[in-house]
Amino acid sequence: MSRVLCIGTATLDIVNRVPRYPEEDSEVRATSQVMRMGGNAANTAIVLAQLGDDVAWVGHLPANAEIVDSTFARHGVDASHATRVADRFMPTSYIIASDATGSRSIVHYRDIPEYSADDFVGVDLDDSHWVHFEGRAVDQLGAMLRHVRRANRITVSLEVEKPRPGIEDLFGHADLLLFSRAYAHWRGFTDAPTFLRGLPKGARATCAWGAMGAWAIDVDGSLLHAPAPVLDRVVDTVGAGDAFNAGVIHASCAGQALAQALSAGVALASLTCTQDGLAFVR
């Protein structure tokens, strides 16, 4: 069993399902509402735990984070090293999920500070085989990546979902880069293969591309593609990217080649889109 440590955010997701996305300055009645834990690294952690990995998560939490604590406990994720921040509120994502298209639109609210490198250096890495970082707070992330790099036996992955000043300077510190389509678009690319071929030589990276599946480039420059299955109905796309990352990491920890890991990530992300939430084991 692999020991995976995930570093990043945990949030409260309030998901309102509507028949279709509302026009500006209008009202719409939600057909359902759920409140659950979200956050990229937190979602990836609970999916990895359901796949059978030994998983820990670290990040900042307010003193009262009942939904996060109960979700991690239910899935067996160790969050004992999370840093509690007094007098702050739970980061919240307000999500509108459209039945008509399967899309989701998100408004984030956050007043809790980013997780710091000073907090991270106190975390015991001795039992970790893989450390996964959510690519945010670049001023802190660089120091955390360098800290992990001192333990040569640990594999490091870095999720690059959004453009953040200076994050490109950190790509060389990760063994595996997990890019989003949104980041590739921001870089001016309209397809994953061209984007991946433009990365520095020797990079090992993936780029998920929605209904078209995902692509990857290996250290030898070979380009790989895993097509996505055609889904009869898209129920909920929230967390699909986080599930993709978990599938890739889990398969890689199990010793599978990048092509197989890419397919595993696509399969898990596709399954996520056919259900509400990220509970695969009931």
Explain the overall architecture.
The protein is α/β, with parallel strands linked by helices. The protein has one domain: Ribokinase (UDP-N-acetylmuramoyl-L-alanine:D-glutamate ligase). The protein is about 30% helix and about 25% strand. The chain has helices spanning about 40-50, 65-75, 115-120, 140-150, 180-185, 190-195, 240-255, 260-275, and strands at about 5, 10-20, 30-40, 55-60, 60, 85, 90-100, 105-110, 130-135, 155-160, 175-180, 205-210, 215, 225. The strands form 3 sheets. It has an 8-stranded mixed sheet with strand order 4-1-9-10-11-12-13-14, sandwiched between helices. It has a 4-stranded mixed sheet with strand order 3-2-7-8. Strands 5-6 form a two-stranded parallel ribbon. Helix 1 (about 40-50) packs across helix 7 (about 240-255). It is globular and about 55 Å long. The mean pLDDT is about 95.
